[in-house]
Amino acid sequence: MGRSGPIEPPGEPLTDGAVAVRLRRESDLAAIAAASHDPESLRWLTDPPMDAEARRTSLDRNAEAWRTGQAAPMVIAAADSDEPIGIVNLQFRDDEVATIAYSVFPAHRGQGIAPRAVELVSGWALGQLRLSRLILEADEGNAASIRVAEKCGFERTGSRVEDSGATTVIFARTAS
């Protein structure tokens, strides 16, 4: 799955003055790797923690995702310092639909960063990329992610039970 061609990244970081969403850089990788080992992140994300090999190949894999139309991996940064404070990613199902996923690094949680980043990326995806629909999935026990979905105008469209027995809540947001 994915788009039928490469994805054109935003020309400038997407920003609201408090956070910026931009392409990942070599200088972000230490923070991304450290956060990938955080117990709270591991509780909700299916990706394994970043090991040395994953870190070494990370930027090449990110570039390939953009080039092949599979995904748009970005970093969430503090707008004033450019410090990486989280990650956000679009996974393209096709030319019109993508799933959005995000994680805020532990020291920056509870500050409204996730909704800001989701709003910025949603606006870009539904506007510039002309997607018709964004999907956000969250474990039913992840109250913070469910609040982000609701705050950002995603509507609950269903749920599914995973092999593990956990229930994933599915939200969607469509282009206006």
UniProtKB/TrEMBL annotation:
Q: What Gene Ontology molecular function terms does this protein carry?
A: acyltransferase activity, transferring groups other than amino-acyl groups
- InterPro entries attached to this UniProt entry: Acyl_CoA_acyltransferase (IPR016181), GNAT_dom (IPR000182), N-acetyltransferase (IPR051531)
The lineage's top-level taxon is Bacteria
Q: Does the keyword Signal apply?
A: no
Is Aminoacyl-tRNA synthetase tagged as a keyword? no
Tell me which residues make up the N-acetyltransferase domain. Answer: 19-176
Pfam families, per database record: Acetyltransf_3
Q: Which UniProt keywords apply?
A: Transferase
Protein known as = RimJ/RimL family protein N-acetyltransferase
